[in-house]
Design brief:
Shape: elongated
Structural class: alpha/beta
Radius of gyration: 33 Å
Strand content: 5-15%
Helix content: 40-55%
Distance between the termini: 78 Å
Strand order of the largest sheet: 1-3-4-5-2-6
Low-confidence stretches: 1-20, 102-154, 661-674, 682-695
Largest sheet: 6 strands, parallel
């Protein structure tokens, strides 16, 4: 095999071919080899730093079946403007090694109109000598010094056009001309986005996997690359697998970022490196890079940014406020303004996705809209550009307004009976919602908007068992907003509900502060929900009479159809659960009344509690078969409509107690504990809530 590199980057070629550079690329290598045997034009695409040039050169220089004997590599250098004339001349010089063209068309000339040699882009101000083949002499064969290589046949040539992004438009036209004038020449292109030609076969190069393959004990490709490069630089510590995985996930498996991070392990531990990466990645640097734009991660991403149009740059930096995935509609709302029309945002999204700045999630043909996610390093770069442009306050204002709308929509979905969709909406936007709240807690955000978001998501904290997290947020946000804010009373009520199981005394104090504000505001819904929490506290004290009185007051006093908290049907179902212990017949009537409420048909959580109360009442009355039937139906309905862990767990426990096989085995049967109608804490341990009551 004979190889010629038309550029000057010989160190890169050596490192690619030394057998150490490629990790976890077996499938991509096979796919690229297969594509080159089946297609004349193949383009390797991917985000910055994914190793496109290394993969292409590794495949080009390891032809296993003799498909080509000559590899002509043409490469463009950092920061050097190359026009169509210089581009054509450089490719023409390379193809001169392959002999005359196969058709009547001849490639364009190699010299400017004045006859001078084409300037060398690698050294401005100097001219580059013509290729050896231009003077008619045979080019020396590097494989056998002292001998010359015979002229190659045209069908033996693979033309590698490496890193064509700076001359993407010019390269597209040139490749199209070459495909027509030299039908037997194969062309391999590396670029961040495809050329867009009809005969083009695209091999997309993704970042390395950060998790090991299932069932295998070895490390992931990303971890192997990180550790290998660190060892080459003298790092000798025993790596902690969890810390290595965390670093790889923060860097999202990008090979360039992993290599740059490996160079910092001599001064930082893995945990310290992860901490620095979590706060920003653009500062990663290599003192001796193979390419100028790889000297820092910021420079590598900046090279992509420099090739973007002005509208794409605006969209890039404004999208950096998103911490997680977002839809096209959200991007249009946040990015558009007086200097950027809404119709300009979708094309910019498509181009940023093609260049690897954004990653598109979901199936393009799915019913739900596609979502986009920005790479972490690109987001850090965009954040810097957003601050430099002075657009951070306005963009964050629009982002906060968008998230408040998302939270309000999720609450409306919950209230109208689309509760599974409400929970899915929260999960999809959870990273951005929590990022907004944490910025407000840190004093650099929108505290009132964040508090409104937390209140809209009451069902997420209460029903979905995130009470500890919600209580933490309320504890901090209540210190950030003004005491006369209309949201404070509702925030105190929700904080009391969330901490009722953990700190009943603090919950009582919070309710004592919320009740006068609700009375002065004439907020009947809030008064009813305060009564509901007082019933929960009484039930925890095993004061059944007081709990029943409070739940009855909540059911009668809370207006139906008012969002912002549990409906009257939930209070009636809670009352039925309390009555089932002492008055099964009354519990059955109350549960039936709860199920007859207009809102209960759309409230799977309330229906599950009511069905549980009926089943438990039947069990207490000795009607075991009916109780088992009701519990099974309630569980099936709950699983189909909403994810409510507390109600699900209570129904499962009841069915276990009613299982005749378990009872006949002689083993002690656990007595079902009725669900306390209050949110349970999640796995996270929140701080003591006593200070909430003092605010």
């Amino acid at each position: 095999m004979w190889t010629r590199d038309d550029g000057h980057d010989t160190r890169l070629a050596g490192r690619v071919l030394d057998g150490r550079a490629l990790f976890g690329r077996d499938e991509e290598l096979a796919a690229l080899r297969r594509a080159l045997t089946e297609h004349r034009l193949v383009t390797v695409t991917g985000a910055a730093g994914t190793g496109k040039s290394r993969l292409a050169l590794a495949v080009a220089t390891s032809c296993p079946d003799g498909t080509w004997r000559t590899v002509l590599r043409v490469r463009w250098h950092d920061g050097i403007p190359v026009g169509r004339r210089a581009l054509t001349a450089r490719v023409d010089r390379a193809l001169a090694l392959a002999g005359p063209p196969d058709g009547p068309a001849s490639p364009p000339g190699r010299a400017d109109r004045d006859g001078r040699a084409d300037p060398d882009p690698a050294e401005p101000g100097r001219t580059r000598p013509e290729a050896a083949a231009d003077d008619g002499r045979a080019d020396p064969d590097p494989a056998e010094p002292g001998r010359t290589r015979p002229e190659a046949a045209a069908d033996d040539v693979l033309l590698l056009l490496d890193d064509v992004d700076p001359v993407h438009t010019e390269c597209t036209g040139l490749v199209q001309t070459l495909l027509m004038s030299r039908p037997a020449v194969r062309i391999l292109v590396t670029s961040r986005r495809p050329l867009g030609l009809g005969d083009e076969n695209v091999v997309r190069l993704a970042p390395l996997a950060v998790d090991a393959a299932p069932g295998r004990a070895d490390v992931s490709p990303a971890a192997a690359l990180l550790i290998s490069r660190a060892r080459e630089r003298g790092w000798s510590e025993e790596p902690d697998p969890a810390a290595v995985t965390r670093v790889c996930r923060l860097l999202e498996g990008v090979p360039l970022a992993l290599e740059l991070a490996a160079g910092r392990l001599g001064e930082w531990t893995l945990d310290e490196l992860a901490t620095h990466l979590a706060s920003g990645q653009c500062g990663l640097a290599d003192p001796a890079p193979l390419l100028l734009r790889h000297r820092t991660l910021r420079a590598s991403i900046g090279a992509v940014h420099a090739l973007c149009e002005p509208a794409q740059r605006k969209v890039w930096r404004r999208l950096s406020v998103f911490a997680g995935p977002f839809t096209e509609a959200a991007a249009v709302f946040v990015c558009s303004g007086s200097d950027l029309a809404p119709h300009e945002v979708p094309p910019a999204l498509a181009m940023l996705g093609a260049m690897g700045v954004l990653r598109t999630l979901g199936d393009p043909g799915a019913v739900r809209p596609q979502r986009h996610r920005m790479a972490l390093a690109a987001r850090d770069f965009g954040t810097e550009r957003l601050a430099a442009a002075g657009e951070r306050p306005l963009t964050r204002d629009r982002h906060a307004a968008h998230l408040r709308g998302v939270a309000a929509v999720a609450e409306t979905l919950w209230h109208t009976g689309l509760q599974r969709q409400a929970l899915r909406t929260v999960r999809e936007e959870y990273e951005d919602l929590t990022d907004l709240v944490r910025r407000a807690e840190g004093g650099s955000g929108h505290p009132e908007t964040a508090l409104a978001v937390v209140l809209h998501l009451w069902f997420w904290w209460a029903v979905h068992e995130h009470a500890g997290e919600g209580g933490d947020h309320l504890r901090v946000l209540l210190t950030r907003v003004a005491a006369d804010s209309p949201l404070v009373a509702r925030a105190r009520w929700l904080a009391a509900w969330l901490c009722a199981a953990r700190d009943p005394r603090a919950a009582d104090a919070l309710l004592s502060l919320a009740w006068p504000a609700a009375v002065l505001a004439g907020d009947d819904a809030l008064l009813g929900r305060i009564a509901h929490v007082r019933g929960t506290l009484a039930w925890q004290r095993r004061d059944a009479a007081a709990a029943a009185a409070y739940y009855r007051q909540a059911a009668d006093g809370t207006p139906g159809g008012v969002p912002g908290g549990p409906s009257p049907a939930v209070s009636l179902a809670a009352l039925a659960v309390v009555q089932a212990h002492h008055a099964p017949e009354a519990a059955a009537r109350t549960a039936h009344r709860a199920l007859a409420q207009p809102t209960c048909a759309n409230d799977a959580w309330a229906a599950a509690l009511a069905h549980y109360a009926r089943a438990f009442a039947d069990h207490r009355a000795g009607r075991t078969g009916r109780a088992r039937h009701r519990a099974r139906r309630a569980l099936a309905d709950l699983e189909a409509r909403v994810d409510a862990p507390q109600a699900h767990r209570a129904l499962r426990l009841l069915l276990t107690a009613l299982d005749p096989a378990t009872s006949a085995s002689g083993a002690p049967t656990a007595r079902p504990r009725p669900p306390v109608p209050a949110p349970r804490e999640g796995t996270r341990t929140p701080p003591v809530a006593a200070d909430l009551a003092r605010r």
